[in-house]
Amino acid sequence: MRFFTTLLFAFMSALIAKAYDFESNGIYYNILSSTDKTVEVTYKDEINFYEREDYIGDITIPSTIDYKGKTLKVIAIGEQAFYNCNELTSIVLGSNIETIGDLSFYGCSSLKAISLSGKIKSIGNSAFEKCTGLTSLNIPKNIELIDTEAFLFLYKYCRT
Fold first, then answer.
1. pTM
2. Cα 120 to the chain's mean position, in Å?
3. What's the average model confidence in pLDDT over 141-154?
4. In this structure, is the dihedral angle defined by the CA atoms of residues 32, 33, 36 and 37, taken in order, positive or negative?
5. Which region holds residue 107: left if phi is over 0, alpha if psi is between -120 and 50, else beta?
6. Per-residue model confidence as pLDDT tens digits over 118-142
7. DSSP secondary structure string, the chain?
8. Radius of gyration of the chain (CA)
9. Contact, 122 vs 145, CB < 8 A?
């Protein structure tokens, strides 16, 4: 019985573990490298496949963030960071963002505007899939990779 109780406790502790390392001004971050002093934007808790309220309205991601006396560079939007945040309306990405991870903005149907920095090197798989509210998106010329289905279901909004 004691073994079962210990196992159950360990399992439950894992379930309530948070998905981020720290929060600042309503934005959740994971530390990527203590040596390089870099972080990525992430989500608050578990992924909800319907609608999340981690991020609402207009969001500005800073270029750097101060944490525990250190200045950290925000270099990435992590996988599923804004997944199904249906009330997110616009986002400005800091000038140090290089990577937009897989499914980062998937299903953000109210997202109308996003400002991409010139440092963006890659946009992940399905990153903007089902962002049907987007009215414009300027992709920097120096981008190296736009992954599979990054803009799936936005074809009717594309102009050549």
1. 0.82
2. 14
3. 88
4. positive
5. left
6. 899 999 999 999 999 988 777 888 8
7. -HHHHHHHHHHHHHHT--S-SEEETTEEEEEEETTTTEEEEE-SSS--SS---SS-EEEE--SEEEETTEEEEEEEE-TTTTTT-TTEEEEE--TT--EE-TTTTTT-TT--EEE--TT--EE-TTTTTT-TT--B-PPPTT--EE-TTTTTT-GGG---
8. 17
9. yes
Which residues are 67's β-sheet partners? 70
Query: In which residue are the tokens 């925000």 written?
Result: 74
- Which tokens is 24 given? 């600042």
Integer CA distances (angstroms), 115 to 5, 22, 62, 90, 130, in order: 50, 24, 12, 8, 18
Tell the residue number behind the tokens 């990525």, with chain if given. 40
What backbone phi and psi angles, to 5 degrees, belong to 10? -60, -40
Q: Where are the domains of the chain?
A: 20-157
Q: Strand pairing partners for 34?
A: none
Structural fold of domain 20-157: 3.80.10
**Amino acid at position 153, single letter:** F
